[in-house]
């Protein structure tokens, strides 16, 4: 059996840290918590689980803090989590089995990250991340913000899920780090540009986000998944601006990097639906329903686009062209994912009535 060091960086996480540590502490041989400047009881909570609590002076660099935490580890493997992450019971059991069965030649293990949820508990955003890595490989974190763990060698993809519990809000903290780096004249990597664009967009600085995304794409040096995502986000900004031709152009530009994704198909469907071009909208939404969701995908997945959303939009499109039977069918498909959705339940009643009227005629 291998041994595992849990390494975390925290700051003002007294309300979430206990839940996180309770979900994994029995599975870890040591727990290392690095505090980057808490002013609440975060360190007190951490100390109730482990004596290995360290202070690290915050220097606007997440990788520096994470690498410091990794440097304290002594076990065979290092597991990393954020304070608002948990492992549910089924995933705790899977990690326990993995710990028993993991072969020594494995350098890293990816886990699924359920990052965001809707009001019905459905996962809305998911991705894979390298979560468990062999300590003696000395893998390093890269990038001051939106950092990533650089790994290589023998990597396996597990079905263990890490569940994110925090409700998301854009504080502007990460954007400030990027803007300060920009003021200092620091050079940005392709990844930096992509995430700078994300932070600008999330904080509704749309015009500057456009420039950063377009620069990122034009340089053609980024990871293909990030380029596809940038195309998606550019098309969203141009939709907000009601510049539908440009929105369509950037969505389709993503096809230069991979086959159509459900997210892009839904974006194109939404563009045509906004313009009341129901035939084109139906084509793209229907295509989204026919695609197979990738299993080992490392980029972000917008789960709604692979499940209920295109069906609901097809319901709307077919309703507008008077094809009530098809509209009803797709609303029922959407309801399978959101059975208590008030809007879909209203659609069901309306369409049942429309179908009866259609039959009588």
TrEMBL record:
Any one Gene Ontology MF annotation carried by this entry is: transferase activity
The record ties this protein, via SMART domains, to: TPR (SM00028)
Q: Which UniProt keywords apply?
A: Transferase
Give start and end of each Glycosyltransferase 2-like domain: 5-144
Q: What is this protein called?
A: Glycosyl transferase
